[in-house]
Request: fold
Amino acid sequence: MLLPQWLRVSCLVFIGLTLVGTPPCGFGRVKQLPLSELRERTGLAIRRKVQVIQGPDLNKGERKLVSNIAIASEKRDWSAAQSYFATYRGDATQIYGAAIHAAFRCGQYQEGAKIYEQCRINCKLVGAPVFTVALRIFGKLKANDRVRQIWDDALKAHELDEILGSARIAAAADLGDVEGAAAVLDQMNLSSNVSINVFHINSAMRACWGWGNKEHKAAKYFFDLLEQFQLSPTIVSFTSLVGAYHTASLPEILSAYQKMKDLEIEPDPVFAETYMFSVLQADRSRNLRRGIEDRLHEKAIKRLQAARDALIDFKKAGVQ
Reply:
């Protein structure tokens, strides 16, 4: 898989701009599920459980500590997870893996970054799950250089696999790093032991959000890879695609939506919101209602009609 020349050249021009001014790629601004949580609930995420992290054997107390941190993580109770981890003075990568996983799930990215640095200092072995979550955390923190360094360190210590690749592409999505996402897909495609799955492509499309006037072309390139790899698009695929179609023409947006309907994929609230942002070309950094209701009179009649038609579809589908 080779990155097309127009995309490769454009990456070099736009990459610096996107890292400074790219809107966040999550869907949490208007009280919708974040993309990560949506994937988790719909079974589209792959998770490496802390109980199976490879490393030195744990004693009974350490196994109990991992379990307690994991339970707090599942409950998204950072206070409890942090309290458990604060009692630990050892060097087992499993403990650090559980703690950094909890920090990520609880949205405590700065705390997760500190745990990663502690693990690098204290642990003789840094487990692949620690690198995996560290990639996500530093992606959320918009630390592009650190993401690249962690990626290099991870590949020196562990073989590339689907989970590690997924985390790196997701970090690229958070950074708006189209070139980085494409490069990882290339690495995975060249590896005989790694499969490219739909969630990899979805994250690559999400990296295109806010990338400038070529974001929809880049996203369409990634979307077409689904067919190349004989993968079936999901609702997350179409959400990621239409999110990048903010700069596309209305016929292109409608064509993508029609393809989704032809595949009989039902919309959900996240797709509905994202689709409306693109159809009405609303500012994604603001609440949809506050950002558009006082400017509807400025929108083209065809876009207003497309939005109205979509609202009818969403209502029929039971979308709130």
